[in-house]
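Minutes, project huddle
Topic: does the predicted pose make sense with flavin mononucleotide bound?
PN asked that the exact inputs be recorded in the minutes so nobody has to dig through chat later. Recorded below.
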Amino acid sequence: MTFTVPTPLEAEIDELITHYPQKRSASLMLLHALQEHFGWISKEAMEWTAAKLGLQPINVYELVTFYPMFRQEPLGKTHIKVCRTLSCALAGSADVRKHFCDKLGLDAHAHVPQTTPDGKFTVEFVECLASCGTAPVVLVNETLHEKVGTAQAAEIIAQGR
Amino acid sequence: MPQEFRLILKNVDQAGYTSDMECYLRHGGYEALKKVLALAPKDLPDGKKMSPQEQVREDVKASGLRGRGGAGFSCGLKWSLVDRRSGKPIYLICNADESEPGTFKDRQIMHKDPHQLIEGMILSCWANDVKLAYLYIRGEMPEGARILNRALKEARAKGFLGKNILGSGYDLEIHVHRGAGAYICGEETGLIESLEGKRPYPRIKPPYFPAVLGLYQCPTIVNNVETLCHVKHIVNMGSAEYAKLGTPNNTGTRIVSLSGDVKRPGYFEIEVGKVTLGELINHDNFGQGLRDGRKLKAVIPGGSSAKVLKAGEVFKLNRKGADGQMAKVDVPLLDLPYDFDSLQQAGTMSGSSAVIVMDDSRDIVDCLANVSEFYAHESCGQCTPCREGSLWMSKALHRMTHGEGRKADADYLVKIASNIQGRTICAFGEACAWPVLSFVSKFRDEFEAKGAADEARTKVAGQSPEIKAAASTHR
Ligand SMILES: Cc1cc2nc3c(=O)[nH]c(=O)nc-3n(C[C@H](O)[C@H](O)[C@H](O)COP(=O)(O)O)c2cc1C
Ligand code: SF4
Ligand code: FES
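Predicted holo structure (C-alpha cells), as shared on screen:
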C-alpha cells in the first residue's frame, strides 16, 4: 500500500512549516496532524515526515518512540485515558480504570494501553492531566471528563459502542 | 477574613464572560498594549534617554514579579540577563506545558481568558524586542490549543499581532506549538529542544542558559503562562501599585491549585503571603476543610516535586520582631503564609503553587509510590543517576505496596535519592529525589513498620506463591 497524504492535509502541513525559521521544528506538529488524520503513525508516515522536513527517518523515529502521545499502531476509536497521578489516585482513579477494563473485557493489570478486539476502545493510564481539582479525570479522545464515576463511565462506553 | 483576590482570574467564571475578542475588549482588553505603544522615551538625569521598552522592563523589575512556573525567579532579572548585543534575534516562549502533578491553573487562563495571556505575551515580546514567539502547550490540551489559535487569529485581525502592530511599526508573530505528553518538556531547556523538533533532552547549564543560548542558540526568554499575564497588570497598574499586592519580596497575586482530600478542591487566587496554608485547606472561602471525621496527615505544598510537610510540624522562620530586628520564630504548619520565602524557609517550596492534601485515611507508602511512579515514567534518561535511580525507587516502592517490603527499604530509598540530587543535568533529579527524601524522613516509622510486617509475614509463610507471582508480574 502506498502512503498518500490528501491535498488539504498537505496544505495544512505546508502552512505549519512556515511557522518556524527551521523546518525541523515543525516535526511534532506534523506528527500530530498525521496522527489526527490516520489515527496512528506508520513507518511510511515517519518516512514521509522526514522527507518533507529534509531529515533522516531516524530523526522522526526517535520522536515517535519518545513522546508518549504518538502511536505506532492503530488504537481504539474511543481512546480512554484515565489519569493515574496522585490527586486522581486519591479520588479513586484506579477503580475508574478497572471499571472501564472490566466492562470492556480488558486486562486491568496490564501497564500498556489495552485495545478491545473490535477496535472500538483503548483504555490506558496516563499521567496528570492538569485538572486535579476535578479528580478523577478521564480524557476521551479530545474531551475531558471530570469527577468521573461509574455512571459517567457507562455513558462514555455507551457513546463509543 | 482570608479571601481570594482575583486579578488574573477577575473575569474568569463570571456570568457571560467568554473567551472571544469582543468580550475581552469590553472588559478593557488590549488597553495595556495601546498604553505602552504610546509611551515616549523618558529623559534621564544624565541627559540620556530611556526607551519605552526599557521603561517597561524596569517596571517589571520594580514590581518584584517572580516566576509562577516553579522556580520563583525574578522575572525582571531574567529579562535583564537576555543577551541584547549578540545581534541574533531574541525569542520568547510561553511555557504552557502545565504538567507538574497537582497543577491546573494555566488551564483556566488558556481556556477561559486566552486574550489575557496573548496580551501579556505581546507586551513581554514588545518590551524585549522579540519578533517571533511560541506558545508551547502540552499535547493533552487539544481544546486549549484550538482556543488559543482562534484567539491569535482574532488578535491578528484586529491588528494587535502581525506586521506593524496598531501602526507602531512593531512586528510580532506568535504560534501555538503542541507538546506530545512528556513532562520533561516543562523544563525550559527540554522545552527548547522539543521546540527545535528533537527529543526534549534538557541542556546543561552553563553554558546553555536560555537568555544567552536558547532556541536555535539565540537569546530566549521562557516564562510561565501566569507570569506573562501578570505583566499586563503591572503595565496597567504601574509597578508601585502592583507591588502593594502581596507581601514584601513576594508581591502580587498567585493562583493556587488545591486538590486531594479537601471538601472543596479548586483554584484560588490569593495575594501572595496573605493567606496561610491552613486557611487554604480549612477556611470556608477555600478548601472548606477535610472530609467529615478525617484529620490532616500530610500536605505537598508546591506540586509533587516539592518536599512533603507533615501535620503538626513546626518551622523556624525569620520574622521581623516589634523591635525591627530579625528573629527566628516558631510557625506551625497551618500558619505558614503561602508565599515563596516562607515555604522555602520551611524546607520545601511553593513550586507551581499546587497544594495536594492527604488525610489520615491515606497510606503514606502508597502515596509516595504513586508519585515515584510518575518520575520513573517521566525521566528523560540522559543522566544515569536519574534514569536508573528513579526506576529503582519506584520498583522498591511498588514492591512495598505489594506486600514485599523490607525494613531496610527506608534506608535504601534514602540512599538512592541522595545519590541522584545534585548529580544530574536538570532539576528533575531533585524533583524525583525530594519527595522520596521527605516522605521517608518524615514518615519513617510507617515505612519501617510496613517493611517489618511484610518481612515477618514472609518468614512465617516461607516464600509464598502469591508473593512470587506478584514479583514476576512486576514490570
Ligand atoms: C522537571 C521540570 C518540569 C517543569 N515543568 C514546568 C511546567 O510544566 N510549566 C512551567 O511553567 N514551568 C515548568 N518548569 C519550570 C521551567 O523550567 C521554567 O523555570 C519556567 O517555565 C520559567 O518561567 P517563570 O520564570 O515564569 O516561572 C519545570 C521545571 C522542571 C525542572
Ligand atoms: S535529570 Fe533526569 S530528566 Fe533531567 S536531564 Fe537528567 S535524566 Fe533527563
Ligand atoms: S492528578 Fe489527575 S489531573 Fe492531575
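Observations noted during the meeting:
- Strands of chain A lie at 78-83, 114-115, 121-126, 138-140, 143-145.
- The CA atoms of residues 17 and 56 of chain A lie 17 Å apart.
No decisions taken; revisit at the next huddle.
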